[in-house]
Amino acid sequence: MSDNWVVQNLENALETWNEKLSEIWTLITTTPQNFKGGNIWKVIVDINGAVQAIGLALLVLFFVIGMVKTCGSFTDVKKPEHALKLFVRFALAKGVITYGMELMLALFNIVQGTISTSTNSLDSSN
Fold it and tell me: For this UniProt entry, which segments traverse the membrane (predicted)?
């Protein structure tokens, strides 16, 4: 260490900055399942089950409301184009509700992989 107080302050500031950056990179690259020992993730999975059940109930309710608004009478539902449109909307919504957690985890894995790759490439270039 230098005897100059300005240099000492700058070195201490850079040391603190590097420590905080390493903590941030650790948090960004930690999977949700491993964060804080996984206890938080277990609670999230339990909550997701309850929210999924509520979401499926609301899906049926809003599907019927949407069907009544879209079709003036029951004969409109018998038309193949209307029936297919309603089925596709229902299937997409059910897929998002059912596989929402998997979609979110896939997105996390993509982002974490991108960050890890960019970090590794930056480390190897230095």
Answer: 40-65, 86-111
At 23, phi and psi to the nearest 5? Answer: -65, -40
What pLDDT is stored for residue 9 in this prediction?
Answer: 92
Angle at 114 between CA 36 and CA 51, to 5 degrees: 50
Over residues 18-48, the pLDDT tens digits come to 999 989 988 888 888 888 888 888 999 899 9
**Identity at 106, one-letter amino acid code:** A
CB atoms closer than 10 angstroms to residue 118: 10
d(CA 114, CA 122) in angstroms, rounded, equals 12
pTM: 0.62
